[in-house]
């Protein structure tokens, strides 16, 4: 069964580097103060983790700080905007953070008979178990099949977090895959990929899949819609 998913993309007139995205999230949380909703940081009141799809995602797009708020995240993002704080401390520096653009969207998320064409960038698909399996598999087609299964699992996890349940078969086919490269996060070198893939699922553009979605990893870009002209989606290749 399909569902319309609301997203709100807020782009700020604030230049940041990729490594500063987690610092941007921390600055937003600090600006709101003690009344901050857990969706802003994905931690529960007892210092545990909220194990569900992040509904507020912090990113760098076109060199600028950006927030993607999804569903309930879009409902509460005004908590930050109402704080009246337009100067944030990003690590050791203070920076003015004015809104440059607001882009609300509604996207019909469901299965279709023909595929959409996507790219996922800065994607972190491998956990400990999958990493061992990937490294022990030398055949390129077997590695691709493994990663296709991981994309499918990532998409299903996203759908579960958005309370969407499919009544058909989700398909994923990788059409182009980068060589793995390293991205550093919390002092660790992580294996990342960029991948072009086709799927029969309509996905809100610029949301993330995989690990560390809340700080800009695994962002999905819509390549082209093809025949799906009646689906409201956005394009942004300026990561």
Question: Any descriptors?
Answer:
single chain; 239 residues; alpha+beta; Alpha-Beta Plaits; 2 domains; 5-stranded antiparallel beta sheet; 4-stranded antiparallel beta sheet; 11 strands; 37% strand; disordered C terminus
Structural class: alpha+beta
How much strand? 35-45%
Mean pLDDT: 87
Discrete helix count:
5
**E-strand count:** 11
What does the main sheet amount to?
5 strands, antiparallel
Helix-strand sequence: EHEEHHEEEEHHEEEE
User: What's the number of structural domains?
Assistant: 2
Radius of gyration: 18 Å
**CATH class (first level) name of the largest domain:** Alpha Beta
CATH architecture level-2 label of the largest domain = 2-Layer Sandwich
Layout of secondary structure:
Elements: E1 3-15, H1 21-32, E2 56-61, E3 64-70, H2 72-76, H3 78-81, E4 87-90, E5 93-96, E6 99-109, E7 111-123, H4 128-136, H5 140-161, E8 172-177, E9 181-185, E10 188-201, E11 219-224
Antiparallel strand pairs: 1-3, 1-6, 2-3, 4-5, 7-10, 7-11, 8-10, 9-10
Quick structural overview:
With 239 residues, the protein is an alpha+beta fold.
Describe this structure in words.
The chain has 239 residues and is α+β, with helices and mostly antiparallel strands. The protein folds into two domains: 3-106, Alpha-Beta Plaits, CATH 3.30.70; 109-224, Alpha-Beta Plaits, CATH 3.30.70. 22% of the residues lie in helices and 37% in strands. It has helices at residues 21-32, 72-76, 78-81, 128-136, 140-161, and strands spanning 3-15, 56-61, 64-70, 87-90, 93-96, 99-109, 111-123, 172-177, 181-185, 188-201, 219-224. Strands 7, 8, 9, 10 and 11 form a five-stranded antiparallel beta sheet that branches. Strands 2-3-1-6 form a four-stranded antiparallel beta sheet.
């Amino acid at each position: 069964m399909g569902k319309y998913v609301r997203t709100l993309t807020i782009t700020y007139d604030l230049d940041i580097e990729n490594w500063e995205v987690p610092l941007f999230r921390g600055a937003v949380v600090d600006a709101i103060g003690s009344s901050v909703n857990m969706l802003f940081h994905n931690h529960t009141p007892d210092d545990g983790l909220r194990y569900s799809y992040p509904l507020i995602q912090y990113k760098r797009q076109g060199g600028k700080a950006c927030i993607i708020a999804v569903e309930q995240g879009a409902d509460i993002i005004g908590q930050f905007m109402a704080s009246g704080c337009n100067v944030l401390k990003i690590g050791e520096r203070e920076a003015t953070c004015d809104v440059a653009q607001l882009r609300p969207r509604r996207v019909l998320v469901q299965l279709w008979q023909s595929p959409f064409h996507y790219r996922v960038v800065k994607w972190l698909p491998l956990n400990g178990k999958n990493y061992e399996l990937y490294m022990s598999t030398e055949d390129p087609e077997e590695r691709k099949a493994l990663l296709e299964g991981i994309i499918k699992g990532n998409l299903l996890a996203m759908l579960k977090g958005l309370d969407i349940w499919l009544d058909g078969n989700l398909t994923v086919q990788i059409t182009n895959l980068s060589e793995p490269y390293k991205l550093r996060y919390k002092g660790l070198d992580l294996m990342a990929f960029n991948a072009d893939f086709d799927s029969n699922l309509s996905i809100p553009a610029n949301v993330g899949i995989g690990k560390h979605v809340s700080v800009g990893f695994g962002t999905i870009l819509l390549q082209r819609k093809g025949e799906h002209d009646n689906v409201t989606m956005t394009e942004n290749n300026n990561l």
